[in-house]
Amino acid sequence: MSGGVDSSVAAGLLGEQGHDVVGATLKLWGGVSDSGCCSVADVDDARRVAQTLGIDHHVFNYTDEFNRHVVDPFVRAHLQGTSPNPCIECNRHIKFDVLFERARRLGFDAVATGHHAQVLVRDGVHELARGADESKDQSYVLGYLHEDQLAQLLLPIGAMNKNEVRVHAQRLGLRTWDKPDSQDVCFIEASKGREAFLRQRVALTSAKIVDRASGEVIGETEAAELMTVGQRRGVLPGRDGRKRYVSRVDVAEGLVEVGVLEDVLQSRLGLDESSLSFTHDALVEGDEVLAQWSAHGRAVPATVVREPSWALTLRAPARPVAPGQTVVMYRVDEPSIVVGAAIVARP
Amino acid sequence: MTELLYFDHAASAPRRDEVADAMERWQHGVVGNPSGSHRAARDARRAVEEARDEVAAFVGAKPGGVIFTAGGTESCHLAVVGATLAHRATHSRSVIVTSRVEHDAVLDAARFAAEQFEGVEHRFIDVDADGVVDLESLRGVLDPDVAVVSVMTVNNETGVCQPLDGVSSVTMGTVPGGVSTHSDAVAAAPWLFLPAVTATIDLISICAHKIGGPVNAGALIMRRDVPLIGVVPGGGQERGRRGGTLDVAACVGLAAAVRLTHKELVDVNDRVIDFQHKLCAALSFLPGCAITAPGSRKVPGTVHVTFEGLASDEILFLLDQEGVCASAASSCSSGAAVTSHVLAAMGVPLERARGSLRLSMGPETTDEDVDRLVAVLSSVIYRLHAEASA
């Protein structure tokens, strides 16, 4: 229970369905925060909601694990010029690993969350599907879940749209019913941003911005680590006045390579083999999927390549995808069903 | 409903009936403002001053030295910040010295003063592996700029007793003219005879709810008239050292609690020390269990242990399911268990500190409670070990 409306309603609905529900709030970030789901005010909200629902509430401290599995890798990845998704790492390593394990040890049958996604059971087989509210769908951040994890997972609000969730919250008398959605990375202060967060921890590298076609230096940046492959914002147009996109970030060399759109489009998405995860069996060469590489991005047709290394061939070339991002694969015949996920490899 | 097995007296002790009875008179109808001059005010003032006499006797000080406060945290804050402000009025530099294992009431007061007031510095006294302050370390941080030295009488997490005589003797012997000393005696009050153990200390903090009294009731007791500037001047109450209308019920409740505690001190110590021995003996057989600070003198009411490879959160959850109220002894503002600064200062490895458990007892604890606790805790620990290896 993050203290937000989704997990509050999830808990309330499960209680109404007759489950013996215990609320748990994870204390993840020990530092300053103004944006996410770890502030004392949010814990207070979660506790008050649990009281309103008449269920027990516990606060579990996972700040060490969160630093180890989410924050430290987030900082390290930037130093390597890659762009990780900390929310996915948090789901993978904290919510669906250490919390699942804890739930099992403590004798719980299932863990429920307020994610907008659905677990479908068909002929005894568990599938992860998109949430009914397309604009809120969070199946992307759950893409790494295996079938055995899905079998232990309940997503009570996945079939609802946000408005229905809020109506339930009001009906249940929850004080969080009109609380705004949290959007930001919980450990980064929205008012200060990622740059301030990184600068407090590491020295950032200045870099030349080089046009890949001409080799010409067209600008400089104070922090190569903050440049993301695919980004256009903050990159000055070239002399020809055309927009430039970041196509490569090399922190060690102090180099950010940019190019015009047609030069940087890519049709091959390399996948980091160690990160590959499938809901059921592994995909094979030539399998068709729909690939999505941002939380609310579009899923586009792609073909699985396994030799010489794992990759996706995109049917339509796309703007470059930052290494470190997660790509979630959905079924072509049933576009709402997740089949697996992987991290985009460095070229 | 599962029957409650309460082993968290150190967090808050059960309210004594005698306390509630004594407070009753002051919680209905006309309760005069003790600062007033009519008969209702005089009645209230008499109750407050009678309470003051009892609190003074409990600590072995003069009634004029008792400053009523709204609890232990405020008492500690007033002592640390008030003594520092008074020192600062006549010095360009003021140093606050505390042990590393103080309650946050003291640590945060010292941090607050160091951050907010120019020329104020906070220095720490190390503790040894048994959680006892290192007097050599104290000697090392003392100099003529020291405004106040604050060392708790008993640690609230581990129950370890601190050598206050040693602290005073080192302080007096090192700084010419001496230094104001403060001791947070909140965790000591249920167990120790404070007139003796705090005899060399200038400022002593106690609170009511650890000894069966109400929360929001405490006192800072000045054994000697050391310089102190009140942090809430308000209406000049408590001789200008703590403004604000006195809560008669709270003062009376505190007095009733100290009266009972004093009366039963020997009996309760006698009885609970047997429980402590029994509990320690039983727990030491559990897998991965280590008794914290086995070599130091502790108050009878606290048994602090760590379980290697287990998490406090999980132990406490399962205990709670069985109706056992216990604590990891350190938690943050969100209510989550956090790694204890006390254990860190003692050099307890993080892996052990994560599996901390404090079981704290009081006058109400019975032999049967202890037996039932041992049975429940054993099954919880074996279960978690079995699940962990499953």
Structure, described:
The complex is a heterodimer of chains A (347) and B (390). Chain A is of the alpha+beta class and 347 residues long. In chain A, 25% of the residues lie in helices and 25% in strands. In chain A, the strands form 5 sheets. A 7-stranded antiparallel β-sheet of chain A has the order 11-15-14-13-16-17-12, with no helix packed on it. Chain A has a 4-stranded mixed β-sheet with strand order 8-7-10-9. Chain B is α/β, with parallel strands linked by helices and 390 residues long. Helices cover 41% and strands 14% of the residues of chain B. Chain B has a 7-stranded mixed β-sheet, sandwiched between helices. A 3-stranded antiparallel β-sheet of chain B has the order 9-10-12. A two-stranded parallel ribbon of chain B has the order 1-11. In chain B, strand 5, helix 6 (164-174) and strand 6 (180-184) form a beta-alpha-beta unit. The longest helix of chain B is centred in the C-terminal third of the chain and has 36 residues, at 248-283. The mean pLDDT of chain B is 95. The A-B interface holds A 25, 27, 30, 38, 40, 43, 47, 56, 58-61, 63-64, 102, 104-107 and B 311, 313-314, 317-318, 320, 332-339, 350, 354, 384, 387-388.
Annotate the secondary structure layout.
The complex is a heterodimer of chains A (347) and B (390).
Chain A: H1 5-16, E1 22-27, H2 40-53, E2 56-61, H3 63-79, H4 86-105, E3 111-112, E4 117-122, E5 125-130, H5 147-150, E6 153-154, H6 162-171, H7 193-199, E7 207-211, E8 217-221, E9 245-250, E10 255-259, H8 261-264, E11 266-270, E12 277-278, E13 288-292, E14 300-305, E15 311-318, E16 326-331, E17 338-343
Parallel strand pairs in A: 1-2, 3-6, 7-10
Antiparallel strand pairs in A: 4-5, 7-8, 9-10, 11-15, 12-17, 13-14, 13-16, 14-15, 16-17
Helix pairs in contact in A: 1-2, 1-6, 3-4
Chain B: E1 5-6, H1 17-24, H2 39-59, E2 66-69, H3 72-88, E3 94-99, H4 104-116, E4 120-125, H5 135-141, E5 146-150, H6 164-174, E6 180-184, H7 194-197, E7 203-207, E8 218-222, H8 248-283, E9 289-291, E10 302-307, H9 312-321, E11 324-325, H10 341-345, H11 350-353, E12 356-360, H12 367-388
Parallel strand pairs in B: 1-11, 3-4, 3-5, 5-6, 6-7
Antiparallel strand pairs in B: 2-8, 7-8, 9-10, 10-12
